[in-house]
Records
---
Amino acid sequence: MTPPGNDRRSPSSDTDDAVAADLPSPQVLRGALGRFATGVSIITCLDAAGARVGLTANSFNALSLDPPLVLWSLRKVSPSLPAFDVTQHFAVNVLAETQVELSRRFAAPQVGQSKFDEGAWSVGLGGAPVLAGCAAVFECERVAAHDGGDHRLFIGRVLRLADIATAPLIFQGGRYHMLGEVL
């Protein structure tokens, strides 16, 4: 019920009237999801042959503080999926706003080790590449993977982390944004 003097409907009352047959197209859904600002990360691991694999993702989130768990998702059609399916460790490198070019580099369809030619990389737990200068790095042991629609959800237990007081890179509306000084 709408309060007196208020002609606007709340977002929840709009969805209450939705009919299941009126689900949004993937393009409309992607546009609406793009309104939500996220951080940007490069997620890395070693594949079965020991080669470094990395990709840009903004699907990273906290899952639990006790135990310390994080999650992220990857499209099932990604050429990187086989590496993350077999690895036992991965690193989530949360990018600083100064690392936008690295984000673009790892988002490109280019495959192979040449992605790692830029940036200061070191070897993390389980061999997962760790990037210097990030806002945060979460080194994880994979504890589960679940299919969800056209994506696979990866859950990792945080074994080691690092963070610095620097502004993170933000992605919203299909564009990169700068947060500014972190106080």
---
Amino acid sequence: MARRKKRIEHSNPDRWLISYADFITLLFAVFVVLYAISSVNEAKYKIFSDSLSIAFTNQPSTSSTTIIPNKQEQLLKTLVDRRTARLGEQQRKMQERMKAVADGLSQVMATMIGQGMVSVNQTKRGIVIDISASSLFKPGEAVLQPAAAEVLNRVAIVLSREDQPIEVEGHTDDVPISTPLFPSNWELSSARASSVVRMLIDHGVPPQRLSAVGMASNQPVVANDSPEHRAKNRRVSITILTPDTEHIILPATP
């Protein structure tokens, strides 16, 4: 029998197009899925943005035109009002506490206040106790006199019961000083502030609450134009700082 001739298969140069088309279709499907996943619900996003703005600034977002539903607006207003009320209560209690400290200091130092050696004032920054340097130190020295221990002991008794930070500043007049120990008023004022800090620590005030600063003659209370005025500027200021109520952590609203 005659052999059957083999059929000649012709090569198809465009076969790759089938695989390419399948790949493009799958790639298109992947991008569609990614787009669907990443799409943002704009309405919900604006509501969320407004909620944060009202909760933290008590003002609606200026870039949003979405009207928050009444129930959600009432809920946010209630939360803001509660937070404001609690913060106001914290501020009121802190003011009462600082006033009690000021009254206690005025009471224990009433004699020296009457003599004009000490003043106690309450400011926005805190309670400032100005003690005349002449009642604490000899001229040009930074060693506390024995009588100063009694004054600082009374101050320390009151301060040791509190937990606010305390700044001690040394101040001089504008008369220059130049000694081997104190080349200028900067060194003298710093050394005097440090002496008071050490004395307060010895009388029970925790050292982590204290800081000492020398101001030289840069913050006079009156002009340095007479011996009496210069005597007022030579002082040590003890400031009990008022806590920053903006950083008070309020308990969670139930």
